[in-house]
Design a protein that fits this description.
about 110 residues, alpha/beta, Rossmann fold, two-stranded parallel ribbon, two-stranded parallel sheet, about 15% strand
């Protein structure tokens, strides 16, 4: 399962983008990611709209996940302090191990493009 949770509380300018447009972009990004990954197993993609940690944990429980793999967001230290961390919230309550992949924001943006 490859999941993207669109959390409008964390979108820089949510007023500039309708939910449908953000979901469409998220689906396109997931399809690109799955194609680039070339995984040797069938992959299901899912885009949801809501609070990140709650949706990740709900879907992990629903699919009886054995591992959650997350990419750390590109927030600065100050933003993490003010907003909290999706990764930290998931790690604290996950029903299984969590692997957090850290990569520079610029490198991630280049790969997604």
């Amino acid at each position: 399962m490859v999941l993207n949770v669109v959390d409008f509380a964390r979108v820089a300018h949510p007023e500039e983008m309708e939910i449908g447009e953000r979901e469409k972009r998220a689906r396109e990004e997931l399809d690109r990611l799955v194609a680039l990954a070339g995984l040797p197993v069938p992959v299901e993609t899912l885009v949801t709209v809501g609070p990140g940690p709650a949706d990740i944990l709900r879907i992990a429980a629903q699919y009886d996940a054995g591992l959650i793999v997350m990419a750390e967001s590109g927030h600065t230290a100050l933003q993490r302090l003010m907003l909290g961390s999706v990764c930290k919230a998931v790690i604290r309550s996950a029903p299984c191990p969590v692997l957090v992949h850290r990569e520079t924001v610029a490198k991630t943006q280049r790969a997604a493009a």
